[in-house]
């Protein structure tokens, strides 16, 4: 995948340039004290990195109707508007890749896996040291915020390819492996100088449109599996974070309760001015749960909701 690595390095250089230019010159309206953002993860945060993976369109969103509400062009994001990090900052170094998991073999070859994302920050650090020197780089990296959204694909991918997690102990073991690999990455960022981490916990995976669709196809047990995996993951990961905080000096983190936040809105859409809480805005089949938005993947048919502002799951069904 030569084009991928070439491009990501290019992006890196560009982002590093932005970081440097925004931190050394004060732009108008910019608060004096601002931190650099480094972003890792999956489709929740991918701002277009997968555009450069030409082997498949499965994990790309650089075609209509993606992007239609905010950017006015297909911006490579898995929705019509902006991602969470877009609301926080316009500039930052974003390494996230739709479809990625904490395990390297999730959608291997079609996504930038978490370890590769990590290697880009190591490269960015080298480039920053050349430009800013050791002290300024150290300061920048320790004040930076590292936003991560990862884990959903580690559980959805096996379920969607029909592998049931037979036993409870196997589930626990699998979760242990997912969190283990994520922990390795967090520790490595810490070693590189990162101190401030922001996480979103797992989405209510069992109630996503794709799971609702699968349930109608007679595989209701997958839904329960997904819900259970998400809950166990959340519990185990919060313990790991507490441990890291007590063990690693200066380590700070915040985790948003994405599961509850989303579940509450899925169950009570009208309370939050939405009309639809469980159906995706763009896709095919019941709940528009089949990931066909844009008609560039295996399934070519797709349907759009009438008003995207009224639909909680603005476009995709999580991936
Ligand atoms: C891959 O996609 C990128 C971005 O759209 C494009 O610039 C590049 O030419 C493509 N490479 C190939 C081999 O198609
Ligand atoms: C977990 O992380 C290690 C070290 O980064 C890597 O070698 C290994 O392949 C990963 N395991 C999986 C299943 O992705
Ligand atoms: C869609 O919903 C939003 C929010 O309620 C509303 O402001 C807008 O007018 C609606 N658009 C259409 C075309 O109905």
Automatic annotation (TrEMBL):
Residues 1-24 form the signal peptide. It comes from the Eukaryota. One of its GO terms (molecular function) is lipase activity. GO terms for biological process: lipid metabolic process. PROSITE patterns: LIPASE_GDSL_SER. Belongs to the 'GDSL' lipolytic enzyme family. PANTHER family: GDSL-LIKE LIPASE/ACYLHYDROLASE, GDSL-LIKE LIPASE_ACYLHYDROLASE. This is GDSL esterase/lipase 5. It comes from Vitis vinifera.
């Amino acid at each position: 995948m030569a084009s991928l690595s070439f491009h990501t390095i290019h992006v890196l250089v560009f982002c590093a340039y932005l970081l440097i230019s925004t931190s050394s010159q004060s732009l108008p309206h910019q608060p004096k004290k601002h931190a650099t953002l480094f972003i890792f993860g999956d489709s929740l945060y991918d701002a277009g990195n997968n555009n450069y993976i030409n082997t498949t369109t499965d994990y790309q969103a650089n075609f209509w109707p993606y992007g239609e509400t905010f950017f006015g062009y297909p911006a490579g994001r898995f929705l019509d508007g902006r991602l969470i990090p877009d609301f926080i900052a316009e500039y930052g170094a974003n390494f996230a890749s739709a479809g990625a998991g904490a395990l390297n073999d999730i959608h291997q070859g079609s996504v930038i896996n978490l370890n590769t994302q990590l290697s880009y920050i190591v490269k960015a650090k080298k480039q920053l040291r050349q430009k800013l020197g050791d002290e300024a780089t150290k300061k920048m990296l320790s004040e930076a915020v590292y936003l991560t959204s990862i884990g959903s694909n580690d559980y959805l991918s096996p379920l969607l390819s029909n592998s049931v997690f037979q036993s409870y102990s196997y589930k626990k073991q699998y979760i242990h492996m997912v969190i283990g690999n994520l922990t390795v990455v967090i520790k490595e960022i810490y070693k590189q100088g990162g101190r401030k981490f922001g996480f979103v916990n797992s989405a209510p995976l069992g109630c996503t449109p794709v799971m609702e669709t699968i349930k109608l196809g007679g595989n209701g047990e997958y839904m329960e599996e997904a819900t259970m995996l998400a809950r166990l993951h959340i519990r185990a990961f919060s313990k790991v974070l507490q441990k890291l905080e007590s063990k690693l000096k200066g380590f700070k983190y915040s985790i948003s309760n994405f599961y509850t936040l989303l579940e509450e809105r899925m169950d009570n859409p009208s309370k939050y001015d939405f009309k639809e809480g469980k159906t995706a805005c763009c896709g095919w089949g019941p709940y528009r749960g089949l990931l066909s938005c844009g008609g560039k993947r295996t399934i070519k048919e797709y349907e759009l909701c009438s008003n995207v502002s009224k639909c909680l799951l603005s476009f995709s069904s999580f991936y």
